[in-house]
Amino acid sequence: MLDEYGRQIDYLRISVTDLCNLRCRYCMPGSGVEKKAHTEILRLEEIEQVVRAAAQLGFKKIRFTGGEPLVRRGLTELISRISCIPGIEDIGLTTNGVLLKEYALPLRGAGLRRVNISIDSLQAAKYHWITRVGELSGVMEGIETAMAAGFSPIKLNVVLVGGFNDDEIKDFVDLTRDREIEVRFIELMPVGEAADWDAAHFLPGSEVLERVPELMPLPFKGRGGVARYYKLPGSRGDVGLISPLSDCFCGGCNRIRLTADGKLKPCLLSDFELDIKAYGTDMRCFLTDAIRAKPMRHHIHQQDAVPRVRNMNQIGG
Ligand code: SAM
Ligand code: SF4
C-alpha cells in the first residue's frame, strides 16, 4: 500500500518481546525491564493475524526483533506458520546471537531466510562492557552456527559508538575479506537510554570511510533497504553504512513497526503510535491507519522531537 507521500510500505518489523538476555548500554537500563503481564503482550496468534492482514495489503517482508526475539517462546512455530502465508516472501530476524547456537537450525527449517546479528566489539572485555553481561564467545558460536545452518549472507550489525568501538572499524571491515559476511555500521540514535548521551559518542557513518579509505562504493544493488554499500577490493563480503542521522533515508522508507504490546509505530524516530486495542478485530484498518500516519521524515535533530517514551528494546531497532 502507498502512503501519503507515495512510498510503497511493504515491510513490517515485529518486536515479539521487550525482554532481553543482554543489557546494551545504549539500549536498556542496567536493571533490565519489568516483565509485562501476559495480557499486555500480544499473543502469537494475534501477531499472526496482523501478518495475515498485512499480506492482504501487499506487505512482503517481515522481520522479527525485540528485545531479544529468541527469548520469546514459540517464535520458531510462529515463523513456520507465517512462512505459509501467501504474499509473505521474506522473513528475517534481528538477534544478539546469544541463543543462535540452539535455534539457528530449527529456525532455518521453519522458513527463516535472513539473520542479522548485533555485535559491537570483537574484543571480549569490551563486548562484556557494552552488553553489561554478554560473552563474546557465545555470540561468535552463534554466528558460526548460523553460517553452518546455511544463512547467507550473514549480516553483522555494529552500532558505532564514538570512544568505544571506532578503533575497531578496520577489524570489523576485515571480517568481510574472505567470508560472505555483510558488516553494517549503524549510527547511534539518540533514543531512550542514548537520548542524552554526550555528542562525542555520536559518529557519522562517513567515519568508516575515513578510517578505511580502500572501501569502494557499490552501485545500488536493488537490495532496497536503508544501507549504502561498499567493498574492499577483492573481498567476498560487503560493508553497509546505515546513517539515519547524517544521511536521512526517510524518502525511501518502506516500513512500519509493531511493538510487543500491540502498538504500531509509523516512524522509528517518533513517539507517535496506534494501539491495537482501539481496532477490535479489524487489523487491516489498524495497519492502514499507521501507513496513512507515516510522516514524510523524522525530526530527530530538534531537541523536542527526540523520542523518549520507549527505549530501543521496546521498539526493535
Ligand atoms: N536484541 C536484538 C539485537 O540486539 O539485535 C534485537 C533488538 S535490538 C533493539 C535491534 C538493533 O537496534 C540492534 O542492532 C541494536 O544494536 C540496535 N540499537 C539499539 N539501540 C540503538 C540506538 N540507540 N541507536 C542505534 N541502534 C540501536
Ligand atoms: Fe538486548 Fe538488542 Fe538491546 Fe542489546 S541491543 S540490550 S541485545 S535488545
Q: What ranges have pLDDT less than 50 throughout 5 or more consecutive residues?
A: none
CATH class identity: Alpha Beta
Shape: globular
Average of pLDDT? 94
Question: Into which percentage range does the β-strand content fall?
Answer: 15-25%
**What is the correct CATH architecture?**
Alpha-Beta Barrel
Task: Reconstruct the topology from this structure.
Blueprint: E1 11-15, H1 44-56, E2 61-65, H2 75-82, E3 90-95, H3 100-110, E4 114-118, H4 124-131, H5 136-148, E5 154-160, H6 169-174, E6 181-187, H7 206-211, E7 216-217, E8 228-231, E9 238-242, E10 255-258, E11 263-265, E12 274-275, H8 283-292
Parallel strand pairs: 1-2, 1-10, 2-3, 3-4, 4-5, 5-6, 6-9
Antiparallel strand pairs: 7-8, 8-9, 10-11, 11-12
Helix pairs in contact: 1-2, 2-3, 3-5
The structure holds S-adenosylmethionine and iron/sulfur cluster.
Kindly describe this structure:
With 317 residues, the chain is an alpha/beta fold. The protein has one domain (11-315): Alpha-Beta Barrel (TIM Barrel). Helix content is 24%, strand content 17%. The protein is built from eight helices and twelve strands. Strands 7-8-9-6-5-4-3-2-1-10-11-12 form a twelve-stranded mixed β-sheet, with helices on one face. β8 (228-231) and β9 form a beta hairpin. It is globular and about 50 Å long. The two termini are 22 Å apart. 44% of the residues are buried.
